[in-house]
């Protein structure tokens, strides 16, 4: 398990891709810019399920290209689903989904790559959908959990933030933060204006797809997310 410490601070912003995004003509150049803008405080989550299945060599090639920027910028490269590709590319992390290996099985694979008594250099992020899953993920060695759609049931369109008192994904987030024992990253329609409410609810970090990749200036968007995060930290 990769511990969070002054020397190994976990990313607070995850820029997540999909097949359509990685297929854009300028993706690699834009991804490098995003990683440079995030630096060690961010992670690029390489998620491209169709490419990984239909064009595995291309997926590995893309991971190897982006890991070069990981070394230059300090931003984490996190491979979605594919533990084997994360190991091949020497990515800093792997993000598991409900369709991936379970955390214990992924940890077993990672442990085979280190000397006896060693600690894997690749951290595990686990998709969690309940407090029970969050606790189980921590006990199995996950470093962080990702909770989706926190905002969807309870967004106040006027304020752009979760409505207090709603029994929703926000309530689950608060329970996970309090009892799961691992940092929780939220994903699902998160824009910079949501960061304050999510941080107040205890979220360790946020993840974005369209908010980073479907804007004119992705690097500027990244800085907006980090600025919103810092404005809460400094309160």
Keywords:
235 residues; globular; alpha/beta; eight-stranded parallel barrel
Describe the model.
The chain is an alpha/beta fold and 235 residues long. Helix 6 (103-111) links the parallel strand 4 and strand 5. The chain has one domain: Aldolase class I (TIM Barrel, Alpha-Beta Barrel), CATH 3.20.20. Helix content is 44%, strand content 17%. Helix 2 (27-38) packs parallel to helix 4 and helix 4 crosses helix 5. Strands 1-2-3-4-5-6-9-10 form an 8-stranded parallel beta barrel, surrounded by 7 helices.
Topology of this structure?
Blueprint: E1 13-16, H1 19-22, H2 27-38, E2 42-46, H3 49-54, H4 56-73, E3 76-80, H5 83-89, E4 93-96, H6 103-111, E5 123-127, H7 131-140, E6 144-148, E7 155-156, E8 161-162, H8 169-179, E9 184-187, H9 195-200, E10 205-208, H10 210-213, H11 218-233
Parallel strand pairs: 1-2, 1-10, 2-3, 3-4, 4-5, 5-6, 6-9, 9-10
Antiparallel strand pairs: 7-8
Helix pairs in contact: 2-4, 2-11, 4-5
Quick overview:
With 235 residues, the chain is of the alpha/beta class. The chain is 44% helix and 17% strand. It is built from 11 helices and 10 strands.
CATH topology name? TIM Barrel
Shape: globular
In helices, the fraction of residues equals 40-55%
The largest sheet has its strands arranged as 1-2-3-4-5-6-9-10
- The CATH class name reads Alpha Beta
């Amino acid at each position: 398990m990769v511990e969070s410490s002054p020397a190994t601070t976990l990313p607070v912003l995850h820029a997540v891709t999909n097949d359509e995004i990685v297929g854009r003509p300028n993706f690699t150049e834009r991804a490098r810019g995003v990683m440079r803008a995030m630096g060690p405080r961010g992670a690029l989550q390489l998620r491209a399920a169709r490419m990984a299945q239909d064009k595995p060599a291309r997926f590995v090639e893309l991971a190897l290209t982006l890991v070069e920027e990981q070394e230059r910028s300090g931003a984490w490269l996190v491979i979605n689903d594919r533990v084997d590709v994360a190991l091949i590319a020497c990515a800093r992390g792997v993000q598991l989904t409900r369709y991936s290996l379970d955390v214990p099985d992924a940890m077993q694979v990672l442990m085979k790559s280190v000397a006896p008594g060693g600690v894997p250099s690749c951290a595990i992020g686990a998709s969690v959908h309940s407090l029970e899953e969050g606790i189980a993920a921590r006990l199995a060695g996950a470093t962080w959990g990702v909770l989706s759609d926190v905002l969807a049931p309870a967004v106040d369109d006027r304020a752009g933030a979760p409505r207090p008192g709603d029994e929703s994904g926000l309530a689950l987030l608060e329970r996970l933060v309090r009892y799961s024992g691992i940092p929780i990253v939220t994903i699902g329609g998160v824009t910079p204006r949501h960061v304050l409410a999510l941080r107040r609810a205890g979220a360790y970090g946020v993840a974005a797809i369209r908010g980073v990749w479907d804007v004119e200036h992705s690097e500027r968007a990244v800085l907006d997310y980090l600025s919103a995060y810092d404005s809460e930290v400094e309160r």
